[in-house]
Amino acid sequence: xxxxxxxxxxxxxxxxxxxxxxxxxxxxxxxxxxxxxxxxxxxxxxxxxxxxxxxxxxxxxxxxxxxxxxxxxxxxxxxxxxxxxxxxxxxxxxxxxxxxxxxxxxxxxxxxxxxxxxxxxxxxxxxxxxxxxxxxxxxxxxxxxxxxxxxxxxxxxxxxxxxxxxxxxxxxxxx
Length: 175
Description:
It contains 5 helices and 9 strands; from the N terminus they run αβαβαβββββαββα. The chain is α+β, with helices and mostly antiparallel strands.
């Protein structure tokens, strides 16, 4: 029994440390800056087992992603899900492969019509685990911001930050 455990440990079998798992959603901060969000949806995503573990640890990057609708199915492009060193050595899926999204056909059809007619895009905003421990992706129908819109949102963010700090200082009793 001890020999088999040592043999397995020598091969590289390890257990996932739950203390290092990401509890907060993984956000695409650039999408909130670059796009005006019109509508959001929650979608499931088709993943391999090792990819779920990598997402749980936080080895995922949502930057520069987009969703394409191909033959009535939605696919997510541009998301990088890294490999875990403890995952299967013989099966390592491509880190940037397109991943199928699980949505109702009515939702897909509605958004594909809007994307085609109004020149809109679909991007992923955040990736998280729901109450049933399933990986979910919040996707949004977005419209690209112009440069002056981005400047305006930056000014608004600075003003909000200053107002919060002044309110905090006022509540503390000092200026």
